[in-house]
Amino acid sequence: MLKILKSSVSAVILSSILMGGALAGEVKSIAILTPEEGTDYGWNQQGIDAAKAAGKAAGVEVVVAQGLGYGDVRPTLRELASDGASLLIAHASGYNTSAPEIAKELKVPVAIVDTPNGLEKGLVADYTLSGHQGAYLAGRLAAKMSRSKSVGIVVSGEPPSWNSQSAAFAQGVKAENPDVKITYAVIGPAAYSDAAGGKRVTESVIASGADIIFGQGNGSSFGMLQAVETTKAADGGKVYFIDVIGDKSPIDKGFLLSSVVWNIEPVYAAMIADLKADTFGTKHYTIGLKDDSVKLLKTAAIPDNVWTEIQTLREDVISGKIKVDPVYDAAAVRALMTSVAQ
């Protein structure tokens, strides 16, 4: 069933998917709002897929509002609330002001990101997630496989989730080989969908000597991947790309080394459970290696012996033998780098 919003938000594709079974308790339906289409093999797609899976498991209706952009989503939030959504998942850092406003105005629970201090019992939950444990392993992998002993980090902004993964990646590189150079570059303050900028900045980082790129970008990551596919390393060989959140294997042309994959379904399932238990807005949600809600993607580009070594490191992180603490401050992240591209 396809439902079209009013003309003021005609760019939105709104679909309502009944996930089978009776509606669970007082949670009648949940809605997720994403800035880009759920076809990015990343943040938007993983969020939508997770919401559908969590809704199916709980037997509640799931409404998907995608392609909303990064502007004012208040009209969409009000529309979804008036349609009876029991939870509005505002799946973008740009929505973390408007969503709480609508929650208080209409008394509808919302979930936001990048605002860990914004909890309000019964109304506002935050799910600022961090795949830093997986990013640490990605850094170890990059240092093991870099021919030039130079790697790059390209980000579309510096939100808490990106910062924690950039820092952990750098820590992993240094733990594996402190002589490996790490070049850090930011496309822009909020360049999440800037594919052209992603390509341009990644090309410059490759030109600085990097032969492996750790990219965090949403839509801009497609530009990063394109740069990796079309730009040779300094030695004339291939440049590899390490992605985050999703799995771009279906569109890989042989340049995807790995990805720090997130499974957000357990987070949304916990939110539904918290709504039922009247504990929504009282806790933070996490993902990690232990339950595979964060995992490093194995591709054919990774030799078996290297993968075995990475799996041993994974167990060390899970056991606590290796401790990887998240770093959210942008200045602290930059301090870990060999150089910061301007």
From TrEMBL:
CDD domains: PBP1_BmpA_Med_PnrA-like (cd06304). One of its GO terms (cellular component) is plasma membrane. Residues 28-324 form the ABC transporter substrate-binding protein PnrA-like domain. It is a lipid-anchor. The keyword Lyase does not apply. Residues 1-24 form the signal peptide. Pfam families: Bmp. Keywords: Cell membrane, Lipoprotein, Membrane, Signal. It is found in: Cell membrane. InterPro entries: BMP_lipoprotein, Peripla_BP_I, PnrA-like. Belongs to the BMP lipoprotein family. This is BMP family ABC transporter substrate-binding protein.
